[in-house]
Specification:
With 173 residues, the protein is α/β, with parallel strands linked by helices. It has one domain: NagB/RpiA/CoA transferase-like (Rossmann fold, 3-Layer(aba) Sandwich). The strands form 2 sheets. The protein has a 6-stranded mixed beta sheet with strand order 3-2-1-4-7-8. The longest helix has 13 residues. The protein starts with a helix and ends with a strand.
Length: 173
């Protein structure tokens, strides 16, 4: 099996649905110091949900920035406080349309999506390389991938350009 097959397998598993554990938000926040500057993804269908995590970080005074994928395989960022309101399902609207892009301050933590991780922190993303490129400029930041428990695997077939994460949190325990 290679990366493509593993991605297909995990996407099929996500289609079956998952439910986050009641303590998921608190377990994520344990990786984020109070008052931190945080980059956090906006979840898509099947991914560990981030709406409550974002709200909790904003409520305690963290500076939270959400990604906007732009042509060329790069990420731009918007202030989460300006990217509201959340939609009827509790998911922040994709910030690409209206919110102004911001220059990031020094980032303390990056909460990023992953299709899979190994126990040692190797991460399998969607395949576009957006976060790998971004993380090269964020070496000071603690990186935390959010996954489902069945996405912690023995091997993600990491390549030299793949950036490992410092930690991971399983949304369902």
């Amino acid at each position: 099996m290679g990366k493509a097959e593993l991605r297909a397998q995990i996407r099929a598993g996500r289609a079956q649905g998952h439910t986050p554990s009641p303590d998921f938000v608190q377990r994520v926040l344990a990786h984020v110091p109070d008052g931190a500057a945080v980059c956090c993804y906006v979840h898509r269908t099947g991914e560990p949900p981030t709406a409550e995590v974002i709200e909790a970080m904003l409520a305690r005074g963290d500076a939270v920035f959400l990604p906007v994928a732009v042509p060329g395989g790069h990420l731009e960022w918007v202030d989460a406080a300006d990217a509201r309101p959340w939609d009827a399902w509790g998911v922040p609207g994709h910030p690409a349309c209206d919110a102004a892009r911001v220059e990031l301050p020094t980032i303390d933590v990056v909460l990023l999506p992953a299709l899979a991780v190994t126990r040692s922190g190797h991460r399998l993303g969607q395949g576009g390389g957006y976060y790998d490129r971004f993380l090269v400029s964020q070496q000071q930041a603690r990186t935390v991938a959010l996954v489902w428990s069945d996405e912690v695997v023995a091997d993600v077939f990491a390549q030299p350009h793949d950036v490992a994460v410092d930690a991971w949190v399983s949304a369902d325990g």
